[in-house]
């Protein structure tokens, strides 16, 4: 359920008065009086305080790199493009398929998968005024993950493309790879398990699984098993992105990495299918939030009730794009995506963009 922003603000002011004082104190302390928060920014910060977020109570002291900097705000002299120091992940509602758009600290961005070829991702990116993707990951060559990528290459500038060495013959994955190869100035890589990806100094990205070498014919049958699995860590909180990895991969990950798989947020594997999100994996990941990207009424029966039960038993709060639409995670707090916010920000984004 969405609450009216006006009602939320009123409640916040009364109930969060002391929190407001602390906020001012922290802001001054952290930024040495350098940043003077605009009234609207303060209001947004207050609103963010109201959310009874598991992150606040469980994480202890706030990581200083993203304290209460509202998404879309900017430091003096900087274009109001992305929230500097913040991390926002959008689990984009692309119907039956996966696409996660990430605003990284410092204004760079990343995109993991492009959803099916239905134009939904392109529309989302256009509404946000996105003109370039710094880091593009194609987890594996299935249409519900790469179908939207040709249009990304056609309309946006892509800096880095991370691919897995799996040819899904007979699909349009060749087209995506041809477009990647033709992109001016692009760096194409096939990350290996254990690799770290350089997505900026404020985040850590570790690859847990992929197919960095050409697959044999037998292995080629399981395209999902070649999914690039990676963990993004920012300010002591982490998100595990699993593509469509299934139980065979999960078993290997648990054996190889164990507790290193621990993550606050899980992008649930394979749209919540029964053969992903095994109890063994969930015991190691122990996610507090689980995001399932899935199309309403899809023919695969995703997500499976057994999977939902396992996630709930693991203590995860579940969010699904088929029920809630695009869902976001801003500075580690879950929130529904509002078009109002996007439109308002788009104006500022557009103004900042023209200078680049
Ligand atoms: Zn797949
Ligand atoms: Zn899929």
How would you characterize this protein structure?
There is one protein chain. The model is unreliable at 1-21, 23-84 and 341-356 (pLDDT under 50). A hairpin with a 2-residue loop joins β14 (327-330) and β15 (333-336). α1 packs across α2, α1 (5-15) crosses α3 (39-50) and α7 packs parallel to α8 (173-182). This protein has two domains: 5-80, no CATH class; 88-336, Ribonuclease Z/Hydroxyacylglutathione hydrolase-like (Metallo-beta-lactamase, Chain A). The chain has helices at residues 5-15, 17-31, 39-50, 54-58, 120-127, 143-146, 149-155, 173-182, 247-257, 279-285, 305-313, 321-324, 339-353, and strands at 88-91, 100-103, 109-112, 132-137, 157-162, 187-189, 196-197, 203-209, 229-234, 237-241, 265-267, 289-292, 317-320, 327-330, 333-336. The protein has 356 residues and is an alpha/beta fold. It has 13 helices and 15 strands. Residues 98, 142, 144-145, 244, 271 line the site of one zinc ion.
- Low-pLDDT runs: 1-21, 23-84, 341-356
Helical percentage: 25-40%
User: What kind of sheet is the major sheet?
Assistant: 8 strands, mixed
CATH-scheme architecture of the largest domain = 4-Layer Sandwich
- By DSSP, the count of extended strands is 15
Rg over CA atoms, rounded to whole Å, is 20 Å
List the helices and strands and how they pair.
Elements (H helix, E strand, L loop, with lengths): L4 H11 L1 H15 L7 H12 L3 H5 L29 E4 L8 E4 L5 E4 L7 H8 L4 E6 L5 H4 L2 H7 L1 E6 L10 H10 L4 E3 L6 E2 L5 E7 L19 E6 L2 E5 L5 H11 L7 E3 L11 H7 L3 E4 L12 H9 L3 E4 H4 L2 E4 L2 E4 L2 H15 L3
Parallel strand pairs: 3-4, 4-5, 5-6, 10-11, 11-12, 12-13
Antiparallel strand pairs: 1-2, 1-14, 2-3, 7-8, 8-9, 9-10, 14-15
């Amino acid at each position: 359920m969405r609450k009216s922003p006006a009602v939320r603000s009123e409640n916040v002011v009364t109930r969060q008065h002391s929190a407001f004082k602390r906020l001012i104190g922290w802001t001054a302390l952290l930024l040495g009086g350098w940043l003077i928060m605009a009234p609207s920014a303060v209001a947004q910060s207050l609103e963010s305080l109201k959310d009874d977020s598991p992150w606040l109570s469980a994480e202890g002291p706030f990581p200083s790199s993203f304290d209460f900097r509202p998404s879309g705000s900017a430091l003096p002299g900087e274009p109001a493009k992305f929230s500097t120091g913040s991390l926002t992940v959008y689990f984009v509602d692309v119907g039956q398929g996966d696409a996660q758009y990430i605003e990284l600290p410092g204004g760079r961005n990343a995109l993991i998968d492009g959803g099916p070829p239905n134009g939904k991702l392109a529309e989302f990116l256009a509404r946000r005024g996105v003109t370039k993707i710094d880091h593009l990951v194609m987890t594996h060559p299935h249409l519900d993950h790469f179908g939207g990528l040709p249009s990304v290459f056609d309309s946006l500038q892509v800096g880095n493309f991370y691919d897995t060495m799996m040819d899904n013959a007979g699909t349009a994955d060749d087209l995506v790879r041809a477009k990647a190869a033709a992109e001016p100035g692009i760096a194409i890589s096939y990350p290996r398990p254990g690799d770290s990806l350089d997505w900026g100094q404020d985040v850590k990205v570790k690859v847990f699984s992929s197919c960095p070498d050409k697959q044999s014919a037998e292995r080629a049958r399981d395209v999902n098993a070649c999914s690039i699995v990676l963990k993004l860590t920012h300010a002591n909180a982490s998100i595990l992105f699993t593509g469509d990895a299934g139980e065979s991969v999960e078993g290997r990950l648990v054996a190889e990495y164990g507790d290193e798989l621990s993550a606050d947020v899980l992008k649930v594997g394979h749209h919540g299918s029964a053969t992903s999100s095994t109890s063994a994996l969930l015991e190691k990941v122990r996610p507090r939030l689980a995001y399932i990207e899935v199309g309403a009424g899809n023919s695969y029966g995703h997500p499976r009730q057994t999977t939902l039960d396992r996630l709930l038993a693991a203590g995860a709060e579940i969010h699904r794009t088929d029920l809630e639409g695009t869902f976001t995670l801003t500075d580690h707090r879950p929130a529904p995506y509002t078009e109002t916010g996007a439109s308002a920000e788009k104006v500022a984004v557009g103004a900042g963009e023209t200078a680049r």
